[in-house]
Amino acid sequence: MRITKIISTTRDATGRLIAKFLRNGKNDVQEVVMSMPPGIDSNPIKDQIAFHEETGVSGESVLIGVLNKDGEALPGEIRIYSTDDSGELQIYLWVKKNGTIEFGGSAGNLVRFQELETGYNQLKSDFNSLVTAFNSHMHATAATGPPVPPTPIPGSIPTTPSTADISGAKIDELKTL
After folding, report:
1. Smallest Cα–Cα separation from 66: which of 103, 28, 34, 99?
2. pLDDT tens digits for 5-64?
3. Among the listed residues 163, 164, 169, the one whose alpha carbon sits nearest the alpha carbon of residue 116
């Protein structure tokens, strides 16, 4: 096995990733198919260190992976990330052994839309009932004496506070920015 440096990559007519790399010095430029695990589509950046291996077929070889100098995944975890052309981290997806998944960070929570929508619609309905009651309330007229509190239309004001609750929308297992 040889350790090499990626020069560039392209896709061939069949969609395979072809890596151009230096093998034995600056004049020994090679092009071979890049191998990856099933379900992973990854394309190394220029100057990334790769591992080159000969196959059992004479004259055939393959790049079997790249050196991950910034690995953070613990045993039992998988972390997928992207970088810009200079190798700076852009975003990641991290499936952690504690049962959580981070989408680019861990400061916030993702939500379940249906539960959030249910809580929001309840709050909206309660608010609209209050607005209707407020807009239709009447003041008793008092010819003399102190002002009289407003007299709402009977049954038009909710008698209990809103029970709207969006806590069911929080997904503790999925974290994000």
Report:
1. 34
2. 899 999 999 988 999 998 777 788 989 998 888 888 889 999 999 998 988 887 788 888
3. 169
Tokens of 148: 């009289």
Residue 145 sits at the vertex; the CA angle it makes with 139 and 149, to the nearest 5 degrees, is 30
Q: Which residue has the tokens 């790249």?
A: 66
Residue 33 exposed, middle or buried by CB count within 10 Å (0-12, 13-18, 19+):
middle
- Helices marked H in the chain — which ranges? 113-136
**Both structure tokens of 38:** 């099933």
Token pair 């709402």 is found at 152
Instruction: List 21's β-bridge partners, or say none.
Output: 6, 30
pTM above 0.70, yes or no: no
91 backbone dihedrals φ, ψ, rounded to 5°: -160, 160
Query: What is residue 109's three-state secondary structure?
Result: strand
Q: Which of 131, 129, 150, 154 is nearest to 141 (CA)?
A: 150
Using CA atoms, how far apart are residues 153 and 136, in angstroms rounded to an integer?
7
Q: Where are the alpha helices (DSSP H) in 81-156?
A: 113-136
CA distance linking residue 104 with residue 175, whole number of Å: 8
**What is the residue type of 136?**
S
